[in-house]
Amino acid sequence: MSSHPMAGSIERLTGRYLILLGSDEANAAQSHLNDMAGLKLQSIGGSEALQIDEISIAEGEGIVFHELGVAVVNSPPDQIAAVNSAVAQSSALHLMEPERYVHTYGTVDLDYLRGYRDAVNHLYDTMTGAEPGGGGLGTRMQDIAYDESQLSWGLQATRVPDSRFTGRGIKIAVLDTGLDLTHPDFTGRTIVSQSFIAGQGVQDGNGHGTHCCGLAVGARRPQHLPRYGIAYDADLYVGKVLDNSGRGTDAGIIAGLQWALSHDCEVISLSLGSAVERGQAYSAVFQQIAARALAKGSLIVAAAGNDSDRARGKINPVSHPANCPDIFSVAAVDRSLKIAWFSNAGLNPGGGKIDLAAPGMDVMSSWPSPDFYKALDGTSMAAPHAAGIAALFSESAPSARGRSLWAYLMQRAKPLSADSKDVGAGLIQAPLA
To answer: Residue 320 in contact with residue 291, Cβ under 8 Å?
Structure first.
């Protein structure tokens, strides 16, 4: 896992392709790809587990996810034209797009953050003639004071301790690097787990997944205070879709999504993705998956991405797959409820807006042994805050599923002073009654 998420050397495309299939036409699509393009396809349905890495789909082969209407194919260069032709000629095949690598969104450089604060304060002093360090914006840039002896600042800011709901009866899927299954704060919990990474089990060899699981569903009474988890009575579904380096592919995410949907998870949390450029369209494949999830009563919550560098005037669009219109996109704010310097913004028309913001800086949660706890920064931390609170809303109202759950979250948000392109409708808030 990179210590700085804005590294420019990340390879973005795997060389494989995603194909969007027509509604309820997976069998016909599979036949066309076999007959016209010579692809050998494996069909995966329901809760079937499929481990996928960079080499597990051989050349000339592919996988069809029937419930999602998606195929992933590995076509050698001399076969691409035939695949394109098959897509163009068959009504059962809608479009083809390149598969992306995806990675975690967390662990931002705190030294850089301090430099950002100092740069903004210096700019204010220069423009206003204020004495250096003498107040003004520098004072406003200081954090709101929270007493974290019992409760994390993120739980306090989102009013989780005031809620009477616990997530009981709700299933939350966290698709990430897995979970430290030996962590004392998860002892006795209902946990269903599955690895989608070839050669690696669910046990978290990275830490990012354990951190995200802790925020969404961590214990009410952890081994060490403060409490950091939200929906502590929810059933946790852990899908390892990123390897122990924090890297994965679209195919692995799709496999994890189909698995979570087959288990009727009301909330699915994604703290992962890949950067997009200004003007770049969202993935039609992931948009179809998200729309089917909403229709099924499941809400996909995703991190907006850490690709921005606001201290230097660089603000990037919401990343993939959070930029899909039917995926709930979450930005990160700091303790002062200001937009985090790395958090992406809703810049691309037709997709990629921010829906809500959540705590995403200096966020304490669970971590694999021997550390057990760690504070991280990133939109990766904001997304599971939102996912846990979504579970509370799901418990609070039997009708709060899919699109109606989305509406509940938006209606109860706390307005913030920042632009909606940065924080959407505001700061997510837990249901009180």
So the answer is: no
What is the pTM for the complete model shown? 0.90
Catalytic residue among 176, 307, 362, 377: 176
Active site residue 3: no
90-101 residue pLDDT tens: 888 899 999 999
Continuous segment of H or E residues that includes residue 184: none
Distance CA 355, CA 340 (A): 15
Catalytic residue among 94, 208, 320, 385: 208
* Helix/strand number for the chain, H first, E second: 11, 16
Task: Determine the topology of domain 143-423 in CATH.
Answer: Rossmann fold (3.40.50)
| 380 labelled catalytic | yes
CATH of 13-100, one of 3.30.70, 1.10.3470, 3.40.50, 3.20.20: 3.30.70
Backbone angles phi, psi at 15, to 5 degrees: 95, -10
What lies within 8 Å, CB to CB, of 345 at 6+ separation is: 304, 308, 315, 316, 317, 318, 331, 354, 421, 422
